Structures are given as C-alpha cells and as structure tokens.
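QA checklist item 7 of 12: single-chain prediction sanity check.
[x] sequence parsed
[x] length recorded as 248
[x] structure emitted
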Amino acid sequence: MPAGPPPSMAGAPEIHFTSEGINGTAASMMANAPTRLNLHPSMLNEVQVVAFSPAPESHLLDLNNSHETPAEEFRTLRTRLNHLQTLQPLHTIVVTSPSPAEGKTFSAVNLALAQSHLAEASVLLGDFDLRRPIVHNLFQIDRAPGLSDFLTGQCSFAQALRKVESMNLYLLPAGSPVKNPLELLNMRQARLLFEELPRIFNWAVFDTPPLLFSAGFHRRSMPLTGTCSRTRCSPRGAHPCCSRKFQG
C-alpha cells in the first residue's frame, strides 16, 4: 500500500516504551514453542544488505539538515530517549495511536533513522502492523521473508532482516500475510523475541496497529513498564510535509 504524506504532529501518535515485551501465547503452538530463541550479535553478519532507496512518497526526513524543524524534533527526542536509557533498561519503543492515519509509521521510521545516525547505535525498525504493513513499501524492499515468517518457523531471524547499506539500521518487514495476525503476535515466540532483542540491538522501534482495532494485542501483549510520552510539532514554522496526512 503506497504511503500518503506525513501528518501534522499535533495530536500525533503515542510512543510507548517497554523493557519487556509480549506476554501470552497461541495455544495451538504452545506445546512446541521454544524456551529461548538464542539470538546473538553474530547473526547480523548473515543479514542481507539492501540499498537505502526510500520511495518518493515516503517523506523520510533529512536528519542531517539542522534547518528542518521536524528533523530537529526527532533528534531532540533521540537525545531524551538515550538519556532515559542511562536511567533504566529501556530498549524497545512501541509507536501507536487510537486510529489509522495518525502518523504512526512516520514517527516510527524517522525515530529509527535518527537513532541509527549515532555511530554506536544498532537499531531495529520492525513492522508489527501485519494487517496493513507499510514499512517495506517505504524502503522499497520485499515484504517477505519477515516477522510472520520467522514466528511461524519459515525462516531464521537473520533471514527475516534487512540491513540498510552504510547505516546502523536493520529492517524487519511484516512478512507473508497471515489469517490471524493478533493470534500470531501473542505467541510465545513473539514474547521471547522482545526479551532477547536487547542482546543485539541498542534500540528496537516498532510500528504497531491502531489501538481501537487491536486493543487485545496492546493490552495483553505489550504491558507498559516505562515512560509514555506524546510527540508534538508546533504548526508554526513546521516543515511543509507535516501539514498533510500520512498513511500509517
């Protein structure tokens, strides 16, 4: 699905921080679920490298341009998050909002890009919106293999990832379409994935479904254990692209 333009940051999506992750299981697979995924940093050497070739309609911000107000907003948010990380075991950022088309993807993608610009940071951007995934379109990569393929045992974790060339950014696309994405995300494998990601990545940023359409997933799967904040951008002097709606 092609992306629309980015939103006004006023009333923008909430960003939830968790140091744990998904609780709950899919009963049909619980008996055969692993107790550990054994993720380790050496896996990243096996990840496919892709060129940084964002779609023209993606509206990714130029975070090296200090004169762009939205870019400065994300750099400021990055600084605050990195400070919080020195105070608590904070590694996972879940971006969500009540309804569709409120800028979740815009916020998740640009925050991940901002974090990946730091030399010491290894950052994962994951698409957990399995019904309406869009991250793969923005970066013009294949949707599969991805998250759903890994959780169902169709590929390894390294095979589900893509590394953006010359950047510290790794992409986890949604993967092959599934009939019941919420049940898949409540599997034990998903919970283990959240628990073990800090072994590999300094930050993991997830684009997730709207709360009104996936309340069970957010309530059961991602209990909040850290800070909850809301990103905002002043309409005055905002980047022109922020005055239009962005699909996400």
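[x] summary fact logged: The first strand starts at residue 14 and ends at 18.
[ ] second reviewer sign-off
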